[in-house]
């Protein structure tokens, strides 16, 4: 079957016309005459972008995949077109779970790994499409596929409007997707960048707090996420703005009449650091002051004698690493304030301090 001057030939033209009967006749003819149809030619690759997904013709896709399998043709399903689309992305974009599943099933047979994180020219990528389309089934398939091939889904990748996928899941009021998203983030130790927006009013916590159209279940999921995890992450990332935002919500939101109390003395699992520890490491006086103010307001005694796995506590870090007099002064003032309520002794007598004074 010869190509014409425009690099078209009967099979491609038939697919463009979405005519499955002619495609079937051409395949039968090729089989009877021992002709191998070229499915990965320069122009044929557009077949799977715009016919598999835009045409939404699962029968046509199945026919072509069957032909490729029987003739040991490996379809190049990670090829992109001039707009940056690849087959899996178009299946997500068109919200077609049948085609999505067909592409995965085909590649699983040969352990051919599909691209799932790449953006197109407009900043659209597979995960983002599942949220804008509100499709939890495709999202679950993406998660399962990512686990199978040890791929980490990029949860904080922004679209052209500078929104992360979680923003669209929340504004679509799909609590199931939001829960799945947060569970995946926690399982893979990903800190969700809920405050990384071009406009502070687009922050998910602010939206959920100030607007009635956000589903109450989503509101609780976001608040639970704030309460249980991100403070240590915000301090670890030296993010004063996020620490301030978390404290604001902890102070102003009441769930079932029980005030949220941030676990400001909770250690992380990588080194035994806690928020105050990390703030001293980063020489971040703003975060230190925020933590002290929050502790005082909520009658919490900040832990400053506890050491991490490097055998360092905040006062030792300030003296040994940063030599920051203002941080030491803040800590002393805090101890003086708390001593009015509870006797706090800074343990300077332990081995390792004396040589720094």
Question: What's the SSE blueprint?
Answer:
Blueprint: H1 10-16, H2 20-32, H3 46-54, H4 58-70, H5 87-93, H6 97-109, H7 126-132, H8 136-148, H9 165-171, H10 175-187, H11 204-210, H12 216-228, H13 230-236, H14 240-252, E1 254-255, E2 258-259, H15 275-281, H16 285-297, H17 314-322, H18 325-338
Antiparallel strand pairs: 1-2
Order of helices and strands: HHHHHHHHHHHHHHEEHHHH
Structural class: mainly alpha
* Termini separation: 87 Å
Largest sheet: 2 strands, antiparallel
Structural features, described:
This protein has 357 residues and is mainly alpha-helical. Helix content is 52%, strand content 1%. The protein contains 18 helices and 2 strands. Strands 1-2 form a two-stranded antiparallel sheet. Helix 1 (10-16) runs antiparallel to helix 2, helix 3 runs parallel beside helix 5 (87-93) and helix 10 (175-187) runs parallel beside helix 12 (216-228).
Question: What would a concise description of this structure say?
Answer:
The chain is mainly alpha-helical. The chain contains 18 helices and 2 strands.
